[in-house]
Design goal:
The protein is built from one helix and four strands. By secondary structure, it is α+β, with helices and mostly antiparallel strands.
């Protein structure tokens, strides 16, 4: 727990490793508090060799998701909640 009482989580995911089996059907979900972080994460992954599967976009259900597939076939899903007001 951070000193301000807000839980913090940080992960630095390398775009390397063994190839994902075909049809693995799993994704690593990374949730951000700032919708702009979804765009930044997607751009960083793409510049590191990932293929953008779903580009960042505001959805009617008040979320900003994106998905990328790394060069080894692993899927990363990014998401941030949007203010409904």
């Amino acid at each position: 727990m951070a000193k301000d009482g807000v839980q913090k989580l940080h992960a630095n995911l390398a775009m390397s490793g063994p190839a994902a089996p075909d049809g693995a059907g799993a994704a690593i979900q990374i949730n951000f508090s700032d919708p702009g972080a979804v765009d930044a994460a997607c751009a960083r992954a793409a510049s590191s060799g990932a293929t953008v599967i779903i580009s960042p976009a505001d959805m009617f259900w008040c979320a900003r998701p994106a998905r990328v597939r790394d060069p080894f076939g692993h899927v990363r899903a990014f998401n941030a909640a949007l203010d409904p007001h």
